[in-house]
Each structure stands twice: as structure tokens, then as C-alpha cells.
Amino acid sequence: MTEIPVLTIDGPSGSGKGTVAARVADSLGWHILDSGALYRLTGLAALKAGVDYDDHAAVAEIARHLPVRFEADRVYLDDEDVSLEIRTETAGNNASRVAAIPEVRAALLEWQRSYARPPGLVADGRDMGTVVFPGARVKIFLEASAGERARRRYKQLKDKGMDVNLAGLIAEIEERDQRDRNRKVAPLVPADDALVIDSTSKTIDEVVDLVLQAVRKALPHV
Question: Is residue 147 part of a domain?
Fold first, then answer.
């Protein structure tokens, strides 16, 4: 059976992994998995259902039966377009909370692995290289300072016409980092064999080039 090549790109919120993953997937002609969207959708679905995040069994049940579909660049939950709603800071913080629930992570594991299809997959998340695809041939871990990540997020939200506070964003990012890095299950850490790239002072083009170089070195036939 032919091995399906997988590239994992992990890192904290705002490190640029989503943009880099999309650019790299487009360049390679591979599929893409935005694993963070699944956790954001789980958090949103629980919220809409009135389920308390402390009720781990109920949240995990929601994760197992997410009524979600992806169409081009749109995301639908129960046939409602939630593409913008899941990209808010609130949705991100809620995703971080449900992602700390072991039963939720277990519920979403096989779903995420099912995205590995020919000709290849770029998997973007926080535990893609350590838990979901530990056998991936190429693993990247993107880093950036909290201040730089907050500035990027501030610009994104401002461009969308949202009213945001930079100091508040920095505090939220640092809090989320603390929660993600210290959770008991699948903490946010680089895989032992990951290439760590600090994107603080790099352009997206520079990071994409570094990632593509790593892919072509490990998979010369790509």
C-alpha cells in the first residue's frame, strides 16, 4: 500500500500556521486539514446547545456527532454558515477549553486522521505531529512572540471592522498559550523530530519557502 505523505504544521495561535499551511498545500496540490476548526466548531456547537464545558461527556458526545460540512471556504454547522463566527477570539478561547478535554480529543482523532488522502495532506494544528500523525515524514513547529502574534491578530480583526484592544489580545494569547502548553493531554509542544521555525521576524513567503525546502528534502519525489 502506497504511503500517503503527511506534513504537519503545529504552533500556537497567531504563529501563521494556517496561512502557511494553505499556501504550502496549494503549492503541493495536497489536501489540507484545519484541525483547529473542529475544536472551534465543537465549542460553538456546545455553546449553542447550552452544554456546559465542564460536562465533559456531553461535550465529547457533541464532538462525535458534529453536524458540520465544509464547502470551499465556508463552514456550516447544522446548515448555518458559521465561517466568521468560529474565527472570533471568543471561539478561539472556547476551542482551547474544549481541546483540554481528553474525551473530546479522542472523539475527533479518527475524524482528523481520515483527512489523509492522496496525493498528500498538510495538517495544521497543535498536536498534529505529536499525536494525530506521529509518523508524518515532515513536521514543522511554528513559533512567534506573543506580542507579534497579537499584532497580527489585531490587524486581521481591524481589517474585518471589529473593535479590538491590542493589550487585551496579548493577555488572551498568553492565557491561551498557558492553557494549551500545560494541559495534561496532547500539550502544545514541538515533536522531537520537528523543524522549529520562529516566524516573529520572517515574512509569510520566507516561512513558506523554508517549509517547502523541508518537504522536498524529506520527500524528493514530491
Answer: yes
